[in-house]
Structures are given as C-alpha cells and as structure tokens.
Design goal:
The complex is a heterodimer of chains A (200) and B (302). Chain A has eleven helices and no strands. Chain A is mainly alpha-helical. In chain A, 78% of the residues lie in helices and 0% in strands. In chain A, helix 4 runs antiparallel to helix 10 and helix 7 packs antiparallel against helix 10. By secondary structure, chain B is of the alpha+beta class. Chain B has two domains: 51 residues, no CATH class; 242 residues, Oxidoreductase, molybdopterin-binding domain (Sulfite Oxidase, Chain A, domain 2, Alpha-Beta Complex). In chain B, 21% of the residues lie in helices and 22% in strands. The longest helix of chain B has 15 residues. The relative contact order of chain B is 0.16. Classes of the chains: A mainly alpha (200), B alpha+beta (302). Chains A and B meet through helix 3, helix 4 and helix 6 of A and helix 3 of B.
Amino acid sequence: MVANRINTLVRHVPTWAIYILYALPAPVLFYMGATGGLGAEPIKALARELGEIALQLLIIGLCITPLRRYLGVNLLKFRRAFGLLAFFYVALHLLVWLVLDVQDLSQIWADIVKRPFVTIGMAAFLLMIPLAATSNNRAVRWLGPRWRVLHRLTYGVALLGAVHFIWLSKGFQLEPLAYLAVIVALLALRLPKRVGVPGR
Amino acid sequence: MAYRWKNDLTENDVTPEHVFLNRRHLLAGAAAGVALAGIGAGGQAKADALEPNSWDDITTYNNYYEFGTGKDDPVKYAGRLTTSPWSVMIDGLVDRPGAYPFEQIMKKMTIEERIYRFRCVEAWSMVVPWNGFELADLLDLAGVQSRAKYVAFETALRRDEMPGTRFPVLDWPYVEGLRLDEAMHPLTMMATGIYGRDIPNQNGAPMRLVVPWKYGFKSIKSVVRITLMEDEPPTSWNKANPREYGFYSNVNPNVDHPRWSQATERRIGGGLFAPKIDTLMFNGYEDEVAAMYDGMDLTKFI
C-alpha cells in the first residue's frame, strides 16, 4: 500500500532535514533581493514571498491530521518542524515590513491600529507566539491535554493569515482566495465525524 | 500647439556639478550649525532630485492587470499585444468623430520629452522621461464641442492577447476619465515613447495617457477610445471599490488610502534598503494644477 511505503520512507527522513530544507529559501530570497533578483522593488517582493511561504507552511501543517485520518499517511513527526518554520517565516515577514518597508516607528503603530489588514496580520503573529513557545517536549508534558486545546489556535492563525492576504490585494484576485479555500477545506475535514463513518 | 508647458526638468536642466557640490557643502555646513542662507536652494534642488529611473526599472515593474496582477507579468506577457495597426476612436461631443489611425495622429503631433514624477497609489514612485504630445492637441484634432465637460478613455480589450483578462480582477475593459479642464491641461499628455524609444507594450503601447499629478492608475494604457461627454464617466477602480478610489485621485499626502498611508512613497530602484521620501501635494505639480480644484474639499473629492 502506498501509505505504508510513505510511512516507511518517512521513518528514514530525519526532522532536521525538513528544518534545513525549509530554512534555505530565507537566505536565498534575501540574497536575490539584494542583488536584483526580486525586481526593481525588492522590499515588497521579499515581504510577499516570505508571507506566502509562511502560509504554505501553515497549510502543510494543517494537512498532517487529515492525511493520517483519511489516507493513513503519518507525517506527525514533522508537524512541529512545519509549525516552527511557519513562525520563523512570519517573524521574518514582519521584520522586513517593520525595518525595510515602514521604517518609521510612529507609522508602524498607526498602521497596526488604523489598517485592518495589518491588525489582522499582527494578531496572527501574536497568536503564534504561545504556540512557538510551547513547541517543545517539556511544554507538551507540562500542559498535558491542554496542549492540544492551545494548539487549535493554529486554525485561527491560518484563517487570519489568508484573510490578511485577501485584504491587502487590489481588485478581485484568485490566489489569496485559493489560499483561504484550501484552509477552510482543511478545517472542514476536522469537523466531528458523523455517526457511521468508520474511523481509522 | 505643443510646448504649452515649459519643462524645467529636462536633462539639460540637471544641476551643474559645481552647484551640486556647493549644495553638499551647504548641507554639511548646516549640519555643523553654520548659518548659510539662500545658496543652491529652490529650483535647482528640485531639478537635481529628479533623476529619471533606469529603462529597466521603468519597463520591468508595471501594473497592467490585463496581463496579470504581478509586477513582472506585463513585461512577460505584453509582447503578445498587437499594436500595429492601431487606431483610436474619438467620439461623443466632437465635431469630427471617427477612428483616427495611429500613424495619422503621429504625423500631426509634435513629440516632445517630458520628465515627470510618476506616483502609484500603492505608494511607490518613479521618474519617467516620457515622449509624447499634449492630449489637448489630439482633442483639438477632433474638435471638442462646447457641451463637453468630461473625457472618457478606454483600454484595448483583447482576450486572446491579454491573459489577465481571463480573471475578473476588474470589470474589463479598463476605463478612465478626466474632467475636460484636466484633459486640456498642458501637463496632460499622451505618451508614445520613453527615453526616445517607442513605448514598450508593458508601459501602454502604442499610446497611453499620462496625468502626472494623479495616481498612476488614472494614466490609462493602450488607449483605443476617447469619448467626450457631458457627465462624469465611470472609472475602473472606482467601480471596483468606490470607498478607496475616487474619480479625481489626485496625489495627496494628506488623504490616506483606507488601507495604507499616502504621506510617503518609495522611489523604485533604491534596492533593499531604499529610504522613504515625502509625497508632494499634487505629486509636486501644485503650482500648475491646484487652481483647478479651488473650492473643492479634497478630502471628499478623492
């Protein structure tokens, strides 16, 4: 069975490989931005690339439970890595916005308060902080069953991230809507199972 | 009648090096607290600040949603647009309505260079050395009737040549409009070139409007139709989001876009660490155009 073969393969892939693989785009993008590879206006381009990678990582994280439940593919050992990497990219995205884009401290606060898409993005980042802080074995043991409840915040983070993307886009654009649709679908798969549907 | 507006910002006007250096000294002196008054300020300072962007910046970083919403989509896909033959339908309240072939228009017009600031509503800006003619000259060709109060413009819509029009990002075709006095203003031009070369497709070939004191989206590209009318015409971004985009859309650092500040802008080409610069009222053309809006509340007529 394909699922079993994947599961066997996954057992041979160390988690650090995921960290290294997914950390690489960050320096590459900074290098491209500094050397003209991101076009004539690299600041907005860099922020956008980092933000999109963060959204993609959140989506990958949300795929893990449905993949296991419905297809029997077990990628659970990578879930923490994807979550922490998503936090890393959101933090970089925020830093690029603060330091390179807005620059002015008073303007930053004005933007957070006055601009709903910035408020939403900032809220998503703040919600990720307790998640990142509790992504270690000690916190999992300490929180016990509360850990799972706390980490459902991820659902809110992903939704806020997609809305943030839609809200900052001009006109009717498909790409940000596609992100939202995928996230909503992945959350819908988590709705309580109806009676009669066999669980795995 | 060309040359109604004297361009004080041509390359010949760039501040001579010794003046520029004097300015440097002045700035250094000011920093050291030495009081020096009235040297090197004013017009020359304005001129040396206005260095045109590179050809690459101007032709690779574009908003032309008919070819896609990415900034690099126009340069990738606009090559598919057939720009020859081309004609512009001029109709509505004009004495000589009809389809005006591009070549015929070019024979009658005097092409001049205008180095203008170009400020996008997204808070980035460029300086572009346009070549073209005044819109007033083209309108005179058709003979504007006295009842006309507004001018409507329309961009070509070629679904087979414009991949972005498969998606309803905007209500195609792209349309724009000006009040007649704005359209007849000597700063308002139809651009047919950049840096003395034919204007590339991604910048609105073969002929696009340039209204330097308004946000860039007013400067409609690849114009196929110009209609003189009595009533204010619909405009694409206003239709898409009337709360965010008004008919006038004059550059105004004091009136923010609902989703971002318009007080500052980033000049394209400054790289990853480009500073923000202050946005000027009417994009720096206040002396020339402010009188047209006397008595209008510019926080309402956005």
